[in-house]
From TrEMBL:
Gene3D superfamilies for this protein: 6.10.30.10
InterPro entries named in the record: ChsH2_C (IPR002878), ChsH2_Znr (IPR022002), NA-bd_OB-fold (IPR012340), Thioester_dehydratase-like (IPR052513)
All copies of domain ChsH2 C-terminal OB-fold, residue ranges: 58-121
Protein name as annotated: Nucleotide-binding protein
Domain ChsH2 rubredoxin-like zinc ribbon: 21-52
Provenance organism: Pseudomonas ogarae (strain DSM 112162 / CECT 30235 / F113)
Pfam family, one: OB_ChsH2_C
Coiled-coil blocks: none
Amino acid sequence: MSGSELPAPTPPVVPETKPFWEGTKAGRLMLPRCLRCDFVIWYPRQFCPECGHDCVEWFEASGRGSIYSFTVVRRGEGPYRDTPSYVLAFVDLPEGPRVMTNIIDCDVTQLQIGQPVSAVFCDAGDSAALLRFRPFLTE
């Protein structure tokens, strides 16, 4: 399934997540990190859920990851109702977070737990792009 076949609803962009969405629009994975305990925060917010500190810095993550778990959704709901089957997955980022996402541009029969993936940013309107992943191809 390619990313263009999946719906790309425009996410709500609020001040505390704006650096993340600006990054996706530019094709960069920006994540917040706590200045006190160095915890990398997911879902982006302006305070640390680990220690409660309210000062974070944004940095550009690698955009790489590995599949932690996945499922093939054959019957979606809402905007995904008329979509052919698609992959919903948890991807572990080397920076620490585990993110829920879609795996696109793949043969679902070839997906494996632990498989390397790389970030893809699918346009979702003027202010954002959705973070999705595709299998990382080595040559």
